[in-house]
Every structure is written in structure tokens, then in C-alpha cells.
Design goal:
Keywords: ATP-binding, Cell shape, Cell wall biogenesis/degradation, Cytoplasm, Ligase, Magnesium, Manganese, Metal-binding, Nucleotide-binding, Peptidoglycan synthesis. Mg(2+) 2 binds at residues 314, 316. It holds the Pfam family Dala_Dala_lig_N. It comes from Paucilactobacillus vaccinostercus DSM 20634. By secondary structure, the protein is of the alpha+beta class. The chain has three domains: 6-123, Rossmann fold; 153-218, ATP-grasp fold, A domain (Dna Ligase, domain 1); 224-356, ATP-grasp fold, B domain (D-amino Acid Aminotransferase, Chain A, domain 1), CATH 3.30.470. It has twelve helices and twelve strands. Strands 10-9-8-11-12 form a five-stranded antiparallel β-sheet. A four-stranded antiparallel β-sheet has the order 4-7-5-6, with helices on one face. The longest helix is centred in the C-terminal third of the chain and has 19 residues, at 338-356. The radius of gyration is 23 Å and the shape is globular.
Length: 380
């Protein structure tokens, strides 16, 4: 007798700058899923953050114009209903596990993880806190610093303190080359390199379009970009390392050469580094994964300076699975096929859900409330 297939709800899209990246990742994950093991329902979050049902999502998945499909579907949705953004989930009663492939907002910031928890359903990847902390670059650095994982020095700029965060102060503390980054954005959106007061002010002004917390980071001299894939829950393991080499004419590995035109980028898989440096980066990545409380999967990026010193750049709790993305490629060169990788990620999702089900919550009736005497002191 054939074993019952696992029903996976594959969620993609989202109201972030990485909307189209998510669609590409979802396609690759869907294609890699063994259809003898899985039934897959598709649900796409629109650019407005409204979840479309399987049929409409399938139309977009199959190549129909997204704007037209959305225009067809929106009149059918009662937007006065406070649950309108997620009403489409009512289509499925028997989902076994949620597989979010939503990069950036909604997907990596803990939002959909909270939804899955309310629905009492398993899901792949990190939980609410780990997702939120790993998405917020400021919180990530605070945790990494507490855990002793080397990362770049930075200052935090907010609307409240920006007037005192002058270029003179920034350059005195961080040097004359810095990178400006919104704390809660992905894929290099809103990131600028600054080398003087003018580029600092213009970069900061643009970054504030994307967040109210802006990191200004010390630049790493002549950095080599190294990435590593992590897989697992309580006992995570690391892949071999990969390198990303961008053209010298590019200031950094930005959205354009990550997802739009990577023709000038060289990917080295696996990258050949010294045994000492390979071990140091691997150990740093695993320590960061545990310190941040990540589960299931993560791609962790590093910058290695001209003296061979590695700095953890950022973790990604739902890394890309596009044709360019290194997360699955680093596992392939480490001996795990694309299809087997998807299987493992799903099984880790089930395992984490089962583990959390063991946590007990005791409720005690309060009964009649007894209040002690209140004494008010004169405060004139």
C-alpha cells in the first residue's frame, strides 16, 4: 500500500523588494520536490501582502501576468474582513507542513512564523524570535557580539540621533569608507558605500526610505566574499564553503549582480582556502547559528579581509533557491542533492514542531482576588 503523501503548502511572493526572487526560488523548490512523496498547494502573497489561493497562485506560477491575475482576484476578496489577507488559507484543511519561500518582509522577519504557530501547524525554518533577530541587522550584531562571533564595527543611526551622527563623527570612529544599511531589509536594498560627507548624507537619506534604524558599518579592506550553508536543528552541520567574486568595478555584491545580471560574477564551489581559515569560518557560522537560535537552514555570509581575517556579514534564514543562489549549490558540492536537501529541510520542520509540542503549559485558576492594603505617600 502506498504511503500517504505529505501535503505541503508552498508560500511565496510577499510585499518586499525580493518578491520576484521569491517566485524564482519557489519554482526551483517545487521542481525539486519528489512528487511521489509530496502534494503541493501554492499560495502567493501579492505585493500588497494579500494571500492568493492555489488556483490563482498556480496561474502566476505557470507564467500568466501577475498584475492581471491580481486584478481578477481582488474583486472577489472582502477587504472589510480583518482576515482578508489570509482568507485563502481556508481552502486547505489537511496541510501537513508550511514551506515559506518568502524572502525579506513577512517571510524572514518572524511574521508568517507567528501565523503558523497560531494555526498549530509545522513549518520549515527558524521560529519567530530567531527569524526576527536574524533579520534585524542591529539585533544580529548585538547577539553575535555577546556570543563572541567577530563582525564589523558599526554605529546605529535613527531619526532621533541622526543630527549628531555627522560624517566627522562617523569617519573618526569607523574610518573614511563605510557602508550604510537599513537594519531590516535584504538583498542589498537601500545599501550605499560612502567615502565622504556628500555620499554619506545621500546614502543615509535613501536608506531611511526603507527603515528607521540604519547601520553604518566599517568597511572591510579588499574583502573576499565567502558563503556557507547550514542545515539542522539542535546539531547543525555545515557545507563546504563557496566564494563570490564580483567585478572590481562594482562597489559590492548588490541586488543587480545577485539576481538580475550575474554574468560578471564568478562563483567558486567549493572555494580553496587554508585549512585554518576554513575551520575558523565554519566554527564561526555554527556558533552564530546556535546563538541566534536558528533552525532548519541558513546561509551565512562572511567577508575576509586582505590579512585573512573573517568577519560575519549576515545570516539568511530563508536563503534564495534561484539558479544563482549558492545555498543549494554548496550542499550539492558537499554531497547532498537538491531533492534530498528539500526532504531534509521538511523533516527538520516536522522534528522542530514535535519537539515544541513537548513543552507544557500549566494553568491555575485564580479564584477570588484578594488585594492587600494600598498605602499612598504624599509626593509634593
Amino acid at each position: 500500500m502506498q504511503e500517504k503523501k505529505i501535503h505541503v503548502a508552498l508560500l511565496f511572493g510577499g510585499n518586499s523588494s525580493e518578491h520576484d526572487v521569491s517566485k524564482r526560488s519557489a519554482h526551483n523548490i517545487y521542481d525539486a520536490m519528489d512528487k511521489t512523496k509530496y502534494d503541493v498547494s501554492l499560495f502567493m502573497f501579492t505585493k500588497d501582502g494579500i494571500l492568493l489561493g492555489h488556483q490563482a497562485s498556480q496561474r502566476i506560477f505557470n507564467g500568466e501576468d501577475e498584475d492581471q491575475v491580481v486584478a481578477d482576484e481582488y474583486p472577489k476578496i472582502d477587504m472589510s474582513n480583518p482576515l482578508a489577507p489570509i482568507m485563502a488559507l481556508g481552502e486547505i484543511q489537511d496541510v501537513d507542513i508550511f514551506y515559506p519561500v518568502i524572502h525579506g518582509n513577512l517571510g524572514e522577519d518572524g511574521t508568517v512564523q507567528g501565523l503558523f504557530k497560531l494555526l498549530k501547524k509545522p513549518y520549515i525554518g527558524s521560529g519567530i524570535l530567531a527569524s526576527a533577530a536574524s533579520f534585524d541587522k542591529d539585533m544580529t550584531k548585538r547577539i553575535l557580539n555577546q556570543a563572541g562571533v567577530r563582525n564589523t564595527k558599526y554605529l546605529l543611526v535613527t531619526p532621533e540621533n541622526k543630527d549628531e551622527m555627522t560624517w566627522a563623527k562617523i569617519s573618526a570612529e569607523l574610518g573614511d569608507t563605510v557602508f550604510i544599511k537599513p537594519a531590516n531589509q535584504g538583498s542589498s536594498v537601500g545599501i550605499h558605500k560612502a567615502t565622504d560627507a556628500a555620499s554619506y548624507e545621500s546614502g543615509l537619506a535613501d536608506a531611511f526610505n526603507y527603515d528607521f534604524k540604519i547601520l553604518v558599518e566599517q568597511a572591510v579592506v579588499k574583502p573576499q566574499e565567502i558563503e556557507i550553508s547550514i542545515l539542522g536543528n539542535e546539531a547543525p552541520r555545515a557545507s563546504k564553503l563557496g566564494a563570490v567574486r564580483v567585478p572590481e568595478s562594482d562597489a559590492f555584491y548588490d541586488y543587480q549582480n545577485k539576481f538580475v545580471d550575474a554574468s560578471g560574477v564568478v562563483f567558486e564551489l567549493p572555494v580553496v582556502l587554508s585549512d585554518e581559515l576554513t575551520k575558523e569560518i565554519t566554527d564561526m557560522a555554527l556558533r552564530a547559528y546556535v546563538a541566534l537560535g536558528m533552525k532548519g537552514l541558513s546561509r551565512i555570509d562572511f567577508l575576509v579581509d586582505q590579512d585573512g581575517v573573517p568577519y560575519l556579514s549576515e545570516p539568511n534564514t530563508l536563503p534564495g533557491f534561484t539558479n544563482i543562489s549558492l545555498y543549494p549549490q554548496m550542499w550539492e558540492v558537499s554531497g547532498i542533492s537538491y531533492s534530498d536537501l528539500i526532504d531534509e529541510i521538511i523533516q527538520y520542520g516536522f522534528a522542530e514542531y514535535k519537539r515544541n509540542q513537548q513543552i507544557k503549559y500549566d494553568f491555575e485558576e485564580l479564584g477570588t482576588e484578594h488585594v492587600g492594603e494600598k498605602k499612598y505617600n504624599q509626593t509634593n
